[in-house]
């Protein structure tokens, strides 16, 4: 796929008429799947349907790759530990304009396209927003006609499958490859040997001068490429997502096997396979930490070898690498690639340190996704040095370069120098991967306006002072193809009916919907679409959880990774307070509400898992209490995934974006909800700030402390107990939870959790509670007036065009990667 061929294939003209497609599906079923239609399973029909469309994609894929090669286009290489791609069938069918014809073709064969679409593997190759962003970016890079490769890991199990047993999260393997993956192509010829451990030898000249270093790894594994085509809107370009799978260099030690050591003979194969077995192994113990570092180096090293081999085959030298390749690090996980590129340039290709460092810095760019210091990866030096001894030497050399540069300005204190260093000299010396990524990149970007400014002031303040032009902002975006056109076809049809089709190609055209916000007939149609989406979610909940919810109630939705800073706990506590108020004041005009939660907690994150249990305990009590009269229900939807989000996002009336201000880098769920006509209740955090500016302050409900006020509280000695004592509703809710009202089987279950709010409240739950509760009552008041509610909801959809990932990618292309997209960008916001 990487080199132009001198043999031209005769053009194939595909007939996309439903009858022709049906005949092609039957032929594929027979000759490529090997089944007669009378015995074909639903999975067989799924495979046949995908392969028929895949044939059309392959032609464009080859053409796109050939064009990039012949025109010597600069390529973007996007390195990410996560690609939360979800199901690809609807994505590809829709982007090629084949969805309705394929639906009709399959229907003529007695096959329901929606039924088989639900069987497609939901590739959980990511943990949350980071991986989903990478997937949106890959689709947008193809849609704006930008030559790009994505690089990641082909996890066998991906993120765990979540079951809820007695209210507790239970992690089970996610077996997404059980029925194969009809989208991928194994590229065994694109295999690279990756080493770990061993020794480093210094090679000197006859006169004793150091010439080069030779790393002799003790362990070796093969990285084997699996390619998935990524189709852009209208099929204008097809790019490549290349995922690496680990294999043993010697799959079986035959001598050991023949000697009777059947287990030992497969030891290397098993060790290699474990490398890409599971996404994010638990890092609460050293073995998990070591495996995660191995994964990060494995895919980064394989990707760089692939990139350099491609570049050398076309240009024959490496000095031009920054002009022809833009390598982007999606967070710190692939930051080891900086040291690896230095090693390849110096040790393999013979460049000196200064030239290698110049090439490296001009080639790499880095996106930071977190302000939490504990989330900026660092590795204990003994572990790092044992696994990657040559890279440790290179990092020390880079660190010397950076610190000598800082010292030369004579304006940095020893404390500032310590913070700039790539080595944390604390009680346990560690390699700071965020500092390595910053030092080794020509561009470092945040993912929302607020996040970028806070980066300059907090985690990277000293490095920003040293390299003042390096940090820039690129606010995140989402692809409107998946997060409007595919997941919400009813709303898409309504918008087309109102303003025409231009928004399908140019999301900016959505602004034309503003004139319909005060149109009673359009509001009624908009509400009808929302009601259909709520019916769909209600049916899903009834089927999965045997729980009935009323679609006429407000659907209040918080779906995201379970984490203390995202404050699902604040939402649950407010639900308990509301429960108390409904029972105490039955005479009031309470608005019926269903609170939905979904999300996974990291296996070793015990507090987050306890919050899931609390949500389920509170749901059990409230949902069974006749005194509530059905006015409040709590639903925890298990095994949150892209496919579950595609059901829940279009059904949401209220979008919960309530993180502690200053801690959420951006968020993309907030964008998906607003695009689908949900009103946001949220803090001024992450991209909520920019959403408020775009949709208007009257069409969003903002509450709580600002990032500056959160920092001031921490600095001035915030006392959460005092805040709790001033709020009777909060005090009563906390007392109920702590005393065992919702956990009669274990009254002390939540005592420590609630004591943590009284004693520390790091995430300002008590500080923001009253403001949050008041904001929820404002939401009730808006909901009472249906025309007003839907007018605001319509304005949310109409004003979300700027949050398209197409806009984000154009900004990356223009400002960071210095590449040209293949189409004229729409006007900026």
UniProtKB/TrEMBL annotation:
Coiled coil: none
Pfam families assigned: Phosphorylase
Catalytic activity as recorded in UniProt: [(1->4)-alpha-D-glucosyl](n) + phosphate = [(1->4)-alpha-D-glucosyl](n-1) + alpha-D-glucose 1-phosphate
Enzyme Commission number(s): 2.4.1.1
Annotated GO biological process: glycogen catabolic process
Primary location: cytoplasm
Gene Ontology CC: cytoplasm
Sites bearing N6-(pyridoxal phosphate)lysine, chain numbering: 672
Subcellular location: Cytoplasm
GO molecular function annotations of the record: glycogen phosphorylase activity; pyridoxal phosphate binding
Cofactors: pyridoxal 5'-phosphate
Assigned keywords, A-Z: Allosteric enzyme, Carbohydrate metabolism, Cytoplasm, Glycosyltransferase, Pyridoxal phosphate, Transferase
Function according to Swiss-Prot or TrEMBL: Allosteric enzyme that catalyzes the rate-limiting step in glycogen catabolism, the phosphorolytic cleavage of glycogen to produce glucose-1-phosphate, and plays a central role in maintaining cellular and organismal glucose homeostasis. Phosphorylase is an important allosteric enzyme in carbohydrate metabolism. Enzymes from different sources differ in their regulatory mechanisms and in their natural substrates. However, all known phosphorylases share catalytic and structural properties.
Family the entry assigns: Belongs to the glycogen phosphorylase family.
Protein name: Alpha-1,4 glucan phosphorylase
Species of provenance: Aquibium oceanicum
């Amino acid at each position: 796929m990487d080199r132009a061929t001198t043999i031209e294939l005769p053009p194939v003209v595909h007939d996309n008429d439903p009858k022709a497609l049906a005949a092609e599906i039957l032929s594929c079923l027979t000759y490529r799947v090997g089944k007669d239609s009378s015995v074909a399973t639903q999975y067989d029909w799924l495979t046949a349907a995908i392969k028929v469309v895949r044939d059309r994609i392959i032609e464009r894929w080859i053409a796109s790759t050939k064009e990039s090669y012949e025109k010597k286009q600069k390529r973007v290489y996007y390195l990410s530990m996560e690609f939360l791609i979800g199901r690809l069938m609807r994505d590809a069918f829709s982007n090629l304009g084949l969805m309705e014809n394929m639906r009709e073709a399959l229907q003529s064969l007695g096959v329901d396209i929606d039924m088989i679409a639900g069987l497609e593997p939901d590739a959980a190759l990511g943990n949350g927003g980071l991986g989903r962003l990478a997937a949106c970016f890959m689709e947008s890079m193809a849609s704006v006609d930008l030559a790009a490769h994505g690089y990641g890991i082909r996890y066998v199990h991906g993120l765990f499958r979540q079951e809820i047993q007695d209210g507790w999260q239970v992690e089970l393997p996610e077996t997404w490859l059980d029925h194969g993956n009809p989208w991928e192509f194994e590229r065994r010829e694109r295999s690279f040997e990756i080493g770990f451990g061993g020794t480093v030898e210094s090679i000197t000249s006859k006169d004793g001068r150091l010439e080069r270093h030779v790393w002799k790894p003790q362990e070796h594994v093969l990285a084997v490429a699996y390619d998935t085509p990524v189709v852009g809107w209208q099929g204008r370009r097809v790019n490549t997502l290349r995922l690496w799978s680990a294999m043993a260099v010697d799959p079986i030690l035959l001598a050991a096997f023949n000697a009777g050591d059947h287990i030992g003979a497969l030891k290397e194969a098993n060790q290699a396979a474990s490398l890409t077995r599971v996404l994010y192994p638990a890092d609460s113990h050293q073995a998990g930490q070591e495996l995660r570092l191995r994964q990060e180096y494995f895919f980064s090293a394989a990707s760089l070898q692939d990139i350099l081999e491609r570049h050398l085959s076309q240009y024959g030298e490496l000095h031009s690498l920054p002009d022809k390749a833009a390598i982007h690090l999606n967070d710190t996980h692939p930051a080891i690639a900086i040291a690896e590129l230095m090693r390849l340039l110096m040790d393999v290709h013979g460049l000196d340190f200064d030239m290698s460092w110049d090439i490296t810095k001009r080639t790499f760019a880095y996106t930071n996704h977190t302000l939490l210091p504990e989330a900026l990866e660092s590795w204990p030096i003994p572990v790092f040095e044992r696994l990657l001894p040559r890279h440790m030497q290179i990092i020390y050399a880079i660190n010397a370069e950076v610190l000598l540069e800082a010292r030369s300005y004579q304006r940095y204190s020893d404390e500032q120098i310590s913070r700039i260093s790539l080595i944390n000299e604390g009680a346990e010396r560690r390699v700071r991967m965020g500092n390595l990524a910053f030092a080794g990149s020509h561009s470092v970007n945040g993912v929302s306006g607020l996040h970028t400014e806070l980066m300059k002031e907090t985690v990277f303040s000293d490095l920003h002072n040293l390299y003042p032009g390096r940090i820039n902002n690129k606010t995140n975006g989402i692809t409107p193809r998946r997060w409007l056109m595919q997941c919400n076809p009813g709303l898409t049809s309504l918008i087309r009916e109102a303003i025409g089709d231009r928004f399908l190609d140019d999301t900016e055209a959505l602004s034309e919907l503003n004139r319909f916000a005060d149109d009673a007939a359009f509001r009624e149609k908009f509400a009808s679409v929302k009601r259909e989406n709520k019916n769909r979610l209600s049916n899903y909940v009834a089927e999965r959880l045997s729980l009935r919810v009323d679609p006429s109630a407000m659907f209040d939705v918080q779906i995201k990774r379970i984490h203390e800073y995202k404050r699902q706990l604040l939402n649950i506590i407010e639900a308990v307070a509301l429960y108390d108020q409904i029972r105490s004041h039955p005479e009031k005009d309470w608005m019926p509400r269903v609170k939905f939660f979904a999300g996974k907690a990291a296996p070793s994150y015990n507090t987050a898992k306890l919050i899931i249990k609390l949500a389920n305990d509170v749901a059990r009590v409230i949902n069974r209490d006749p005194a509530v009269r059905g006015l409040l229900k709590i639903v925890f939807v298990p095994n949150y995934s892209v496919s579950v989000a595609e059901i829940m996002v279009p059904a949401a009336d209220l979008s919960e974006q309530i993180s502690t201000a200053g801690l959420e880098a951006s968020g993309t769920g907030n964008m998906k909800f607003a695009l689908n006509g949900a009103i946001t209740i949220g803090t001024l955090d992450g991209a909520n700030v920019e959403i408020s500016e775009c949709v208007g302050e009257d069409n969003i409900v903002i509450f709580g402390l600002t990032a500056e006020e959160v920092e001031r509280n921490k600095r001035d000695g915030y006392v959460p107990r005092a805040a709790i004592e001033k709020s009777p509703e909060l005090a009563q809710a906390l007392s109920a939870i702590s005393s065992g009202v919702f956990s009669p089987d274990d009254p002390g279950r939540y005592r420590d959790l609630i004591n943590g709010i009284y004693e520390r409240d790091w995430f300002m739950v008590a500080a923001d509670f009253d403001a949050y509760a008041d904001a929820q009552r404002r939401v009730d008041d808006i909901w009472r007036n249906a025309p007003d509610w839907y007018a605001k909801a319509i304005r949310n959809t109409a004003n979300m065009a700027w949050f398209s990932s197409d806009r984000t990618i154009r900004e990356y292309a223009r400002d960071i990667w210095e590449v040209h997209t293949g189409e004229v960008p729409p006007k900026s916001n």
